[in-house]
Design a protein that fits this description.
Layout: E1 8-12, E2 15-26, E3 29-36, H1 41-57, H2 59-72, E4 75-79, E5 86-94, E6 97-104
Antiparallel strand pairs: 1-2, 1-4, 2-3, 3-6, 5-6
Helix pairs in contact: 1-2
Length: 107
């Protein structure tokens, strides 16, 4: 399936930071190829630190610490076919790989 339902976008306000393409579901996670724009560069270090710590320590200890920082950055995850609005998400980006889980509004 290479339709728009497999495309996700990462925004800061109205600025596109990157696109998640070729997403595959491994419930509850979506694993994708992440294609960044130049605007993502200011957030790259945050995600690189998170990925490094994730490899060393493991998910449980890292999730809370970095989830707050990512949320405070005001980044939005938007599906290409936005039938519903994303309420919350957990997002990891490491190089050209991205994986995330979403919580839809109303769930």
């Amino acid at each position: 399936m290479n339709d728009n339902s497999e495309l996700w976008y990462l925004y800061k306000d109205d600025v596109l930071l990157g696109t998640f393409e070729n997403c595959e579901s491994d419930w509850p996670w979506l694993s994708c190829t992440f294609v960044s724009t130049a605007a993502f560069d200011q957030y790259r270090a945050l995600f690189e630190r998170e990925a490094t710590h994730l490899e060393k320590v493991g998910a449980d200890e890292i999730l809370e610490m970095y989830a707050d920082q990512i949320t405070q950055a005001g980044l939005r995850l938007v599906p290409a076919d936005p039938i519903r609005e994303v309420e919350d998400y957990i997002l990891h980006i490491s190089g050209s790989e991205g994986w995330f889980r979403i919580i839809w509004v109303g769930h």
